[in-house]
Structures are given as structure tokens and as C-alpha cells.
Amino acid sequence: MRCDLAACYRLVALYGWSDLVFTHISAKLPASVAGEAHQFLINPYGMMFEEITASSLVKVDMECRKLHDSPFSVNPAGFVIHSAVHEARPEAGCVLHTHTRAGVAVSSQKHGVLPISQQSTFVLASLAYHDYEGVAFRSDEKPRLQADLGHANFLVLRNHGLLTVGRGIADAFLSMYILESACQIQVAALAGQQGAEGLTQVAPQIIAGVGQAMKVQTDGMGGSFVWPAMLRKLDRTDPGYKT
Is this structure's pTM higher than 0.85? Predict the structure, then answer.
């Protein structure tokens, strides 16, 4: 899990989704390691995403308190969103949050994600929105975020960014790849438009059946279908991204 999470951080950096040292990708430790406790691995605060290694990841509890000796600090304020999601969705093995330019742009658009691309249809099948309440460091925001998220696996944080929930690291990464792609396509499609009226939208009945299409596309394996290829991509890229 440490190796996969470190690789995920480096892939996020490689694709240009990181925001310097800000945001988190959290992975929940299995019961075989943590027992009944809720424990997670997150990034050491202050390290760039392409610098993160398996051994530098920090184990924390639900309040983002360090559970082992580590020379690195953590960012409890940034973990409020993650703890809220993990608390409400015990099946979530990984939560990935970004502040990309395209993601924040779409999060600020009143209509949100539009059904204008194949990528958007996968997102719209399991999408929720949460209104901006300022920098997310107050625990009183958690119940509202949890209620807005519900059972969705894609969350647009209005005026803030994007979030995906996955059974594991591979699922969360693939979901973010699809959501980020949908946002980039939308920003490009809207460039020069006076609004969304000039865009061709996907029929609602197609979006309704997209769950089965996704299973077919990944051979029923979800993110695990593409994850080995992503690890090979890291190995072939600049040595600085290797784990």
C-alpha cells in the first residue's frame, strides 16, 4: 500500500494535478494492520508530490495525529475533508483531492459538470456537489460535506476543487483521471462560447446506463485494470518520478 500510494502521488505530479505541497491523497489501512481503529497513510507536509517515497508516508488517526515516529510534519487542517469522507464511507480505501486549474474552473461554473463528453457521462453517473464554506479546517463542516457526498464517488467542491472516492488507490486515481479529463474538455469546449447552449449534450438515457459501460471498459476490474500500466509509465519516465 505504501508503494502504491507513493506511486499515486508521483503520478498526480506527473500529470500536473498537484498544488505544490497542498491537498492530500489518503489511503485507509486495512483491519489486518489497524484492527478496529481508523488509520491512514498521507503525505508528509512540505514535500512536493514527486518527492514522496513509500517510507516517507506518515501514518495518522482520524484527527491526523501521527501514530509513529517521523521526522515529517502533517497538515491536520487539510485532512478534515478526508476524515469526513472516510468516516461516512467506511468502504472507501482511498480519497484523492485536487486543486487543478480545470477542476476549480468547472467547480465555479453554476451548471457544474456538463454532459458533453464520454468522460463526463461516467462522472455524472455518480456525482455530488458541496458548496464552499471557506478553507476546510473546521470540523463543523463535516456533517454537511458527508450529507452532500452521500454514496457518490465523484465530488465537486464548489470554488475549491475535485475529489474522488475509491475502494482502493487504483480506483481513486482512475476516477480522478476521468473527472479531470471531463473538466479539461469542458473548459476547452466553453472557450469562446457565451454559454453552454451551443454545445451538444449527451442524452440522459445514455448517462443512466453508464455504470455497465464502465464495467465493460475495465473488464470488471475498475482501476486495477489500468494500474500496472501506470506503474510502468513511472518507470519509463524521468527517473525523478520512480518510486
Answer: yes
- Our CA dihedral for 39, 131, 211, 102, rounded to 10 degrees, sits at -100
Residue 148 grid cell: 452532500
Residues 6+ apart with CB under 8 A from 59: 29, 39, 40, 41, 66, 67, 68
Pairing of the two strands 127-130 and 154-157: parallel
Contacts of 34-38 spanning 24+ positions with Cβ under 8 A: 37/61, 38/62, 38/86, 38/87
In whole angstroms, what is the distance from residue 79 CA to residue 149 CA? Answer: 16
Residue with cell 508528509: 44
pLDDT digits (tens, 9 = 90+) for 91-116: 999 999 999 999 999 999 999 999 99
